[in-house]
């Protein structure tokens, strides 16, 4: 055991979304969530699509935009502990392939959910609200911004 020896990455949290097979695993996870929700007998197809969209967006918001820091010991002198995972992704460089993928995937899921719910107003409101909660924090203008001081520390 090498105590006190850091890995070669400044912050391994920044590269995990670019690792091999991550996008496929992500898509399969969303697909499995949808299949599990469809297998529940008292959920209709529109309810299953709306729940898939809302649960996906809630999970994406929590893991990418609410949780700060990194589970790894980093030699960056604590810079990563004040940033969310989205802000750490690709070392903060905007419009990389992984950032585009994680921006487009909730939009595609939103379109699928809207189509399969036949644009029902109730489902449409829930799907749109959940989409906006994950798209607005991804804007480059909000990089490092804490609205009303929420999640500042």
From TrEMBL:
Assembly: Ceramide-sensitive subunit of the serine palmitoyltransferase (SPT) complex, which is also composed of SPTLC1, SPTLC2/3 and SPTSSA/B.
Record keywords, A-Z: Membrane, Transmembrane, Transmembrane helix
Domain of life per record: Eukaryota
GO cellular component: endoplasmic reticulum membrane
Protein name as annotated: ORML1 protein
Protein task: Plays an essential role in the homeostatic regulation of sphingolipid de novo biosynthesis by modulating the activity of the serine palmitoyltransferase (SPT) in response to ceramide levels. When complexed to SPT, the binding of ceramides to its N-terminus stabilizes a conformation that block SPT substrate entry, hence preventing SPT catalytic activity. Through this mechanism, maintains ceramide levels at sufficient concentrations for the production of complex sphingolipids, but which prevents the accumulation of ceramides to levels that trigger apoptosis.
TM stretches of this protein: 23-43, 101-117
InterPro entries: ORMDL
Location in or out of the cell: Membrane
Membrane topology: Multi-pass membrane protein
Family: Belongs to the ORM family.
Any GO BP: regulation of ceramide biosynthetic process
């Amino acid at each position: 055991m090498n105590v006190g020896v850091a890995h070669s990455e400044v912050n391994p949290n920044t590269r995990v979304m670019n690792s091999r097979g991550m996008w496929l695993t992500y898509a399969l996870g969303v697909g499995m969530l949808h299949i599990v929700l469809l297998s529940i007998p008292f959920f209709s197809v529109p309810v299953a699509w709306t729940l898939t969209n809302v649960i996906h967006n809630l999970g994406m918001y929590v893991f990418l935009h609410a949780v700060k820091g990194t589970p790894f010991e980093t030699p960056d002198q604590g810079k990563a502990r004040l940033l969310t995972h989205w802000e750490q992704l690709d070392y903060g460089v905007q419009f990389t392939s992984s950032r585009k993928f994680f921006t487009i995937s909730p939009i595609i899921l939103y379109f699928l959910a809207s189509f399969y719910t036949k644009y029902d107003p109730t489902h449409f409101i829930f799907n749109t609200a959940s989409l906006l909660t994950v798209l607005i924090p991804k804007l480059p203008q909000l990089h490092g911004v804490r609205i009303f001081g929420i999640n500042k520390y």
